[in-house]
Design brief:
The protein is of the alpha/beta class and 230 residues long. The chain folds into two domains: 150 residues, HAD superfamily/HAD-like (Rossmann fold); 66 residues, Orthogonal Bundle (DNA polymerase, domain 1), CATH 1.10.150. Helices cover 43% and strands 12% of the residues. The strands form two sheets. Strands 5-4-1-6-7-8 form a six-stranded parallel β-sheet, sandwiched between helices. The chain has a two-stranded antiparallel sheet with strand order 2-3. Strand 6, helix 8 and strand 7 form a beta-alpha-beta unit. The longest helix has 15 residues. The protein is elongated. It starts with 7 loop residues before the first strand and ends in a 6-residue tail after the last helix.
């Protein structure tokens, strides 16, 4: 019979472990202001995050006057990434209970990895600033892979990098990118409700849905013991 320690746990970052949208908005707006563009609200940025910096910046430019030339998105993206990497925890917090869950999983010997669409340039400073780096000896960021979430290959590539292709795995995330990737990879999922999802949860159909990290270990036990309902 499988136990919790037999499972690999893959975590998303933004909207799952850290509430980064206000910080992303702060850095993005500095980059937009340098272009003479208007700022975006945090709520609008929440609508745009999840697919990676390339899409975030392109959508932000579309919102604020359009794209001036072919190289415009790349220039603004590089400016945004530089600002964000220099201010990784500006207006950002770790969600309550997240560190306790990671601590418990690590102490129990559960293998964990990070699977995020966030670029490595901004992922590493966030992890370092919040002391989260040691939880994730393996991570695959959005610019590390050819097929990022919601493509299930992002998850499977992460598992392969861990050398655990024969072990069961579970995806923990907050958005359609995470849960659709889990479906695509044939993995169960735990979806948190406090992130940046753009789909109704009853359509997304995660294996288990939780409203706080207080419920995480019960959710994990349900999956390990064969539960399937969200």
């Amino acid at each position: 019979m499988r136990t919790t320690t037999d499972h690999t746990i893959l975590f998303d970052l933004d909207g799952t472990i850290v509430d980064s949208a206000p910080g992303v908005a702060w850095s993005l707006n500095r980059a937009l202001e340098a272009e003479g563009r208007a700022s975006l609200t945090v709520e609008r940025v929440k609508d745009l995050v999840g697919k990676g910096a390339q899409y975030l910046v392109a959508d932000a430019l579309a919102d604020t006057g359009g794209i001036d030339d072919d190289g415009h998105p790349d220039r603004v993206r590089e400016a945004f990434l530089q600002i964000y990497s220099e201010n990784p925890i500006q207006d950002t917090i770790v969600f309550p209970g997240a560190v306790d869950v990671l601590d418990k999983l690590r102490s129990d010997g559960v293998p964990m990895a990070l699977c995020t669409n966030k670029p490595r340039k901004t992922t590493l400073p966030v992890l370092e600033a919040f002391g989260l780096m040691d939880f994730f000896p393996v991570m695959l960021c959005g610019d590390d892979v050819e097929n990022r979430k919601p493509d299930g290959r992002h998850l499977l590539d992460t598992i392969a990098k861990m050398g655990r292709t024969d072990a069961p795995a579970i995806m923990v995330g907050d958005s359609e990118n995470d849960i659709l990737a889990a479906h695509d990879a044939g993995l169960p999922s735990i979806c948190v409700t406090f992130g940046y999802c753009h789909m109704p949860f009853d359509e997304l159909k995660p294996t288990v849905l939780i409203d706080s990290y207080d419920s995480f270990h019960d959710a994990l036990a349900r999956i390990v013991n064969g539960g399937t309902a969200a």
